[in-house]
Sequence to fold (271 residues):
Amino acid sequence: MEKIKLAIEKAKADRNQLAGAATRTSVQLTAPQIIQDRPHFSSSDLKQIVLDRDHLEDNRIITFDRSDPKGASFDMLRTQISQRMGENGWQTLAITSPRSGCGKTVTAINLAFSVARHTDRSAILVDLDLRKPSVAKCLGINVEKSLVDYLQGTAELHDILVCPDVERLTLLVNNRSIKNASEVITSRILLDMIAQLRKFDPSGILIFDLPPMLSTDDVLAFFPQVDCTLLLVASGYSTISEVESCERYMQSTNYLGVVLNKFEGTQEEYY
Ligand SMILES: Nc1ncnc2c1ncn2[C@@H]1O[C@H](COP(=O)(O)OP(=O)(O)O)[C@@H](O)[C@H]1O
Ligand SMILES: [Mg+2]
Fold:
């Protein structure tokens, strides 16, 4: 009992230390011993929200509507990814790109919708682009408490998880950017949160919307925490050498492959 109390106190101290992070450029993070019990809450305890369909469509979130033929490419992507993940017992997927603007957030959201709507697995989408969080904006949702509050110790995990009106989908968004993102992305508190999310829904897929790879070393530092990775590149924007650099780094991960986004070639209408 005494050991558990000590560990909880250590974890709280770590969170309080992070609380000052927003105003400082660097924070000395300790490595507390954290108890990783299964979270004591269920989906029905989480904040429920209704998504605005028009906002989604305006922001290229198309997998919401099953009848939209444009969703076919996401369905193919989802099938391939969920098969590979299922075969290997993988639970976490990281999506990154060489630079920002390639479409990571749009793809991560569409993929999460597609998994939740078309498979028997649930999806949890986590905004881990700590410097430039944009999942909430893209979905048109306004949350009072988000990831940064959890990291600062002013919210619990069940305060920041949100259930939209899409069955089997849970969102963990962030409404403020974090200055010392490099440290936070590998901090004990964030890694513990991921462990908690894994336990919250052991059969679900956790999708992380990560920062771009070539701007900082955040993504490289985070890779050991994920089961598999996906590289998103944008047609007419990402260069061959950028893609090659990213792929070199990603060979040390369970690399699922590269997805070409923003391609403007022709597409078959029906097949
Ligand atoms: N397939 C696509 N076709 C056209 N525009 C796209 C596509 N995917 C994303 N976009 C747009 O590109 C911009 C950047 O997308 P975003 O997902 O925010 O990129 P990232 O997260 O990689 O920075 C957004 O305006 C988004 O709507
Ligand atoms: Mg983004």
User: Anything to note?
Assistant: The beta strands are 47-49, 92-96, 123-127, 161-164, 169-172, 205-209, 228-234, 255-261. Residues 59-60, 97, 100-106, 134, 261-262 surround adenosine-5'-diphosphate (ligand 1) (CB under 6 Å).
